[in-house]
């Protein structure tokens, strides 16, 4: 395989991996909501239209496993759980804002 072909294959693998992390229907809205700072579970549920509880739980677990967010469970009654972007998650902000700008400019409404 030539060097150019090897680089293309590596780029495709990297892009595939990125999309596995942030390519889900709900991942980006969750991340976008957390750009404003730490949120409780109920705040996320309220601020993300049309997401159901089961899907929010699933996506939060996935984002936590990929080190995009942290989950902080406080020992209160009832339990309080806060979600915050990690440094890795914060680094997505300029990229996702650029996607938003592109969409606003080029997607017909």
TrEMBL record:
Residues 13-109 form the HTH hxlR-type domain. GO terms for molecular function: DNA binding. It holds the Pfam family HxlR. PROSITE patterns: HTH_HXLR. It comes from the Bacteria. Gene3D superfamilies: Winged helix-like DNA-binding domain superfamily/Winged helix DNA-binding domain. Keywords: DNA-binding, Transcription, Transcription regulation. Transmembrane segments: none annotated. The keyword DNA-binding applies. Signal peptide: none annotated. InterPro entries: HTH_HxlR, WH-like_DNA-bd_sf, WH_DNA-bd_sf. This is HTH hxlR-type domain-containing protein. The lineage of its organism: Bacteria, Pseudomonadati, Bacteroidota, Flavobacteriia, Flavobacteriales.
């Amino acid at each position: 395989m030539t060097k150019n072909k090897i680089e293309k294959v590596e780029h495709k693998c990297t892009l595939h991996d990125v999309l596995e992390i942030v390519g889900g229907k709900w991942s980006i809205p969750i991340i976008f909501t957390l750009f404003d700072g730490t949120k409780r579970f109920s705040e996320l549920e309220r601020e993300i239209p049309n997401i159901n509880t089961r899907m929010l739980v699933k996506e939060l677990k996935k984002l936590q496993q990929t080190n995009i967010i942290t989950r902080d469970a406080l020992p209160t009654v009832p339990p309080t759980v806060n979600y915050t972007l990690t440094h890795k998650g914060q680094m997505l902000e300029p990229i996702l804002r650029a996607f938003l700008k592109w969409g606003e400019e080029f997607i017909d409404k």
